[in-house]
Amino acid sequence: MFPDWDASMARQAAQLSEFVPAGARVLDCACGIGTQAIGLAMRGYSVVGADLSPVAARRAGVEASARGVSLPVVAADMRSLPFASDSFDVVVALDNAMPHLLTADDMLAALREMRRVLRSGGRLIVSIRDYDELLLSRPLSTPPSVGPGRVVWFQLWHWDGDQYELEMFRLHEAESWQVVVDKARYWAINRHEFTDLAERAGFASPEWFLSAFYQPLMIAPFE
Fold first, then answer.
1. Is the pTM of this model over 0.85?
2. Most buried residue, 32, 54, 100, 221, by CB count within 10 Å?
3. CATH for the 5-128+190-222 domain, from 2.40.50.140, 3.30.565.10, 3.40.50.150, 2.60.40.1180
4. What tens digit of pLDDT does each residue of 176-215 get?
């Protein structure tokens, strides 16, 4: 969640554009409601959005239209992408999307699909949480954040080996305080493990950038 979503879109797109060649055709295969996909489209890239959630994908398209940019969207599982081989110059999977996949087999299936839809000379860009650090500290919660309109949100993390269940609490004030709780489970995969899977999927020499984006960023070429 970002207090100023449009500012976050612009900032993240500027950071990502350092790694996305001019004129590239981009697939955001976990676009959510469009934070990175819309930002990149607003910088002039040709972007297609896909997300497992049809609701999120539709909203990304609506939000893009509201900002005057084109963003074709589709509901799709990153393990079975509905695109022809050799269709994109860059594939992105950001905002810690890939650790929703809880097994090496599922992660490999997704990475191989991303490689399949990439053109030769293309690249994969992935961001995940800094699990190298988080596995050492194993936090149980995040500090509360306050947004416009008296909205408060925080997370509780319940660890189970190298996985954790995250509960996102959102409190907003109506006639009284209302609470909404969303749950998700993640694999706290470290960078060595993720690099190994990317190489097994056919990507050459993945490289990590720890301060170029708000999460560690992996750039993996496909020759």
1. yes
2. 32
3. 3.40.50.150
4. 899 999 999 999 999 999 999 999 999 989 999 999 999 9
